[in-house]
Sequence to fold (217 residues):
Amino acid sequence: MIQVLLADDDVMIRAGVRAILTTDPDIEVIAEAGDGREAIELALAYRPDVALLDIRMPRLDGLAAGAEIIRAAPTIAVAILTTFGDDAYLARALDDGIRGFLLKSGNPRELIAGVHAVAGGGAYLAPKMAARVISELRSSGLSRATAARAKVQALTDRERDVLTLLGAGLSNTQIANRLGLVEGTIKGHVSAILTRLDLRNRVQAAILAHEAGLVTE
Fold:
């Protein structure tokens, strides 16, 4: 069972998201907050698997609240609930260790998939946002793609396999199943990838995988 803290100052949005999440028998919303400060308090009190935070909230926004939750309780996976166009905040979120961006207006199945991904140790960008980010990466020119391809050359073949699947949004468990390895081995590969490529988190690794052309879908 994935336990979720849901934070949004709009009661109707909160009710709608909760209704979507609870259609999945493996997800339970255990606490709700109406602002960023309350979200931090409830996260530390309930220790959910996932804290799903609206990006714009009173008292403290979702990014600041998420960063504080990660610092105080790093085992809690933080994902941001947002609207299309707020991806300008992506760089700040990456630096803070936030694992996912989920769209309020997206397909309900994407919302559920995103919660599962970040709860399983993965990174998740809503498909519309991912497409926009990838488009921006491509428009930045050949030099960036070339630099990314050169960077991943430092990895072993197995590490590149792991990075490719990580870039596709798979969790450690899913990567292990795909490659026929145990999850502990995958965790070791992910740690080595982040260290060797000087990356802070899985989302940065996922974006690098796209930049380097490892992810084709």
The first strand starts at residue 2 and ends at 7.
